[in-house]
């Protein structure tokens, strides 16, 4: 196959889906790789490095789309790309289809084969770890007096106490934030709805963190003493309520900080809306909000290396085996299939956007084969199926 590495064009996005190391592996297996000029420049990977790895450097995204059987990038596909996507072309990126109906419209219209990368991670995305760790650091930056925060130092000084931090969600993102904040001396409370996760984290930190079952009421009980909240909860998109509403922010001292790493739309935080690295903060009811949606892009070199390594097996499976066999062998690739030649194949998107869908194994004709298992990517279910003849 001919594989194309696109330059990401979302504002504030500097990562690249494949570094020269992955390109060399793909080329070594007999595939042709086209790399868009400067696709890795912002992450520290030169055009010369891609050429040395065996890629052909091309000037434009238009040429990548026109020549490649499969194209890949880190983030969503932008409006300027919609008309470039070709029928039967394979595209891969963090599409976030349930929250991007216009993007889904374009993908279905093109009759391409689309995979949403955020659903294909068997062991969790390194972007989650990066978002948690770097998000904690951005929260500390937001706490600075010069950025509108109350000016507390994370670990305190002699005679001055450190920060009280509440982390909502004990998954990969929350664990990343916890590791940074604990190491820097913060007094941390983690809330989750999984008692097993809370027990595991308490044991890991020798009982030196606080753990609580996560409800709106328990959150409200600790907000008056909390300096910083980090939201790492993946909120079901069909829910219309919030874990923290705007009125609850008044329980916190002025200059407190809220970092919404999950940043879903809609999400768990009523006052949250997406910001960019260029203008990352705003204030609601006295609380400084940091709501950048692509936090890992700020550490583009490290996240590109980690993410490209994670994505390589999925890319190789599709390139080497084709879409059908890749979906048979790997359930996580199968569940990430978002659209197939004009048909929606993504259950969450069907449930959230009220669109008909068809199961990947059905549209691919593989339902009677022995399929690798993967759990559903989200809790959203849909029985709104296409009525096929």
**Annotated CATH architecture of the largest domain:** 3-Layer(aba) Sandwich
Q: CA-to-CA gap between the ends? A: 33 Å
Give Rg in angstroms.
22 Å
Shape: globular
CATH superfamily of the largest domain: NAD(P)-binding Rossmann-like Domain
Please estimate the helix content.
25-40%
Q: Largest sheet, if any?
A: 8 strands, mixed
As a percent range, the share of strand residues is 15-25%
Helical segment count: 12
What's the total number of strands? 15
Low-confidence stretches: none
Taking strands numbered 1, 2, ... along the chain, how are they ordered across the largest sheet?
Answer: 3-2-1-4-5-6-14-15
CATH C-level of the largest domain: Alpha Beta
Q: Looking at CATH, which topology of the largest domain would you report?
A: Rossmann fold
Structural class: alpha/beta
Describe the fold and architecture.
This protein has an eight-stranded mixed beta sheet with strand order 3-2-1-4-5-6-14-15, with helices on both faces. With about 400 residues, it is α/β, with parallel strands linked by helices. It is globular. A hairpin with a 2-residue loop joins strand 12 and strand 13. The protein has helices at about 20-30, 45-50, 60-65, 100-110, 125-145, 170-185, 195-205, 215-220, 300-330, 330-335, 345-355, 360-365; strands at about 1-5, 30-35, 55-60, 70, 90-95, 115, 165-170, 185-190, 210-215, 230, 255-260, 280-285, 285-290, 335-340, 345. The longest helix is centred in the C-terminal third of the chain and has 30 residues, at about 300-330. The protein has two domains: about 1-120 and about 300-365, Rossmann fold (3-Layer(aba) Sandwich), CATH 3.40.50.720; about 130-295, Rossmann fold. The chain is about 30% helix and about 15% strand. The mean pLDDT is about 95.
């Amino acid at each position: 196959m001919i594989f194309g590495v696109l330059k990401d064009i979302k504002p504030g996005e500097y990562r690249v889906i494949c570094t020269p190391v992955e390109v060399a592996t793909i080329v070594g297996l007999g595939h042709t790789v086209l790399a868009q000029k400067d696709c890795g420049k912002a992450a520290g990977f030169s055009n010369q490095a891609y050429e040395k790895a065996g890629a052909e450097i091309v000037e434009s995204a238009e040429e990548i789309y026109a020549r490649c059987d499969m194209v890949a990038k880190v983030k969503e596909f932008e409006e300027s790309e919609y008309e470039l996507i070709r029928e039967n072309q394979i595209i891969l990126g963090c599409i976030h289809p349930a929250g991007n109906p216009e993007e889904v419209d374009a993908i279905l219209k093109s009759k391409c084969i689309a995979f949403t990368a955020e659903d294909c991670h068997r062991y969790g995305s390194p972007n989650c770890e990066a978002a948690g760790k770097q998000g904690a650091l951005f929260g500390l930056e937001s706490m600075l007096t010069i950025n509108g925060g109350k000016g507390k130092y994370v670990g305190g000084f002699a005679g001055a106490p450190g920060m009280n931090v509440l982390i909502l969600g004990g998954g990969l993102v929350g664990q990343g934030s916890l590791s940074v904040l604990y190491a820097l001396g913060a007094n941390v409370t983690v809330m989750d709805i999984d008692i097993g996760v809370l027990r595991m984290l308490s044991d890991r930190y020798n009982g030196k963190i606080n753990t609580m079952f996560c409800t709106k009421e328990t959150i409200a009980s600790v907000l008056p003493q909390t300096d910083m909240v980090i939201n790492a909860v993946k909120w079901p998109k069909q829910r219309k309520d919030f874990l923290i509403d705007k009125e609850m922010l008044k329980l916190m001292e002025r200059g407190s900080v809220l970092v919404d790493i999950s940043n879903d739309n809609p999400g768990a935080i009523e006052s949250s809306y997406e910001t960019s690295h260029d203008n990352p903060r705003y204030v609601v009811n006295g609380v400084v909000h940091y709501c950048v949606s692509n936090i890992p892009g700020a550490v583009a070199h490290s996240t590109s290396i980690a993410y490209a390594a994670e994505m390589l097996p999925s890319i190789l499976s599709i390139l080497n085996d084709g879409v059908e066999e890749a979906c048979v062998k790997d359930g996580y690739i199968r569940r990430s299939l978002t659209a197939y030649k004009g048909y929606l194949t993504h259950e969450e998107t069907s449930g959230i956007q009220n669109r008909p869908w068809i199961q990947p194994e059905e549209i691919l004709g593989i339902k009677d084969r022995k399929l690798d298992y993967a759990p559903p990517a989200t809790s959203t279910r849909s029985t709104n199926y296409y009525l096929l003849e």
